[in-house]
Every structure is written in C-alpha cells, then in structure tokens.
Amino acid sequence: xxxxxxxxxxxxxxFGNFASPPVxxxxxxxVLAENYRVYRDAVIGYVExxxxxxxxxxxxxxxxxxGWRALSTLQxxxxxxxxxxxxxxxxxxxxxxxxxxxxxxxxxxxxxxxxVEVGYxxxxxxxxxxxxxxxxGALVSDVVVH
Length: 146
What we know:
By secondary structure, the chain is α+β, with helices and mostly antiparallel strands.
C-alpha cells in the first residue's frame, strides 16, 4: 500500500500542485500594457500632488517604482486640468491596456474621424475627444485631474 501511495504522490507532483496557484506566463503585450499603466498612473499621481503643473513632466520626476524603465516610447502633456498620456504600443498591447483599464472613455487608440482627432475605446465602443494632438495610432489616456 505504501508503494501505491508514493506512486500517486509522485503523479500528483508531476501533473500539478493543487496547494498553490499556477504560475502564469506574461505575454509581451501584457507586459507592455502594464508598463504603460504604471507610467500613466505615475503621471496622474504627480499632477495630483503638484497642482498647476503644465507642459511635460520628465520621467525622472515621476514617482515610478525602483528599477522601472519604459519598454516603449511613452510621453505626457499637461494642459490646465487635462493629463494626456500616450504611448507607441503595438495593437495587442493597446487592447490589453484598455482591458486592464476597464470600460473607460479615458483610454483608447488615437484616430482621425471627420477631421478631428479622437480616441476609440474598445472597452466601451465609444469615441472620446482628444483635446491635444498625439500620434495617430498611439494608445492614449485623456484624464481630467482636479
């Protein structure tokens, strides 16, 4: 009986450990989306703590986690109470970033529609105006901070 128990224990060890959650693999798209989210949140946090900020906030001034570095081109612009963050992310990463933001009108992909630059949110299926020029095709977050 002991031999059978050890055999079954070995099979269990080979095919899964039910005591701990499985280790997930991160796709490149998901990693880039998370990198974008961390940057966007740091810019928003900076503007919330420094009212009246205008222009561009340098990456060195942002409250980013130790060791964090941009994995794609990420930029920001602050005008009055508008915080605009955009990044040059491949389409799968943009979709992941939108999904992680939940249904939001504040995250989408910049496009030109009827001669006006707008963002399209896959999450809600809605268009939102972008009040400042960003590269067409960029993932963009347009947030008002009070």
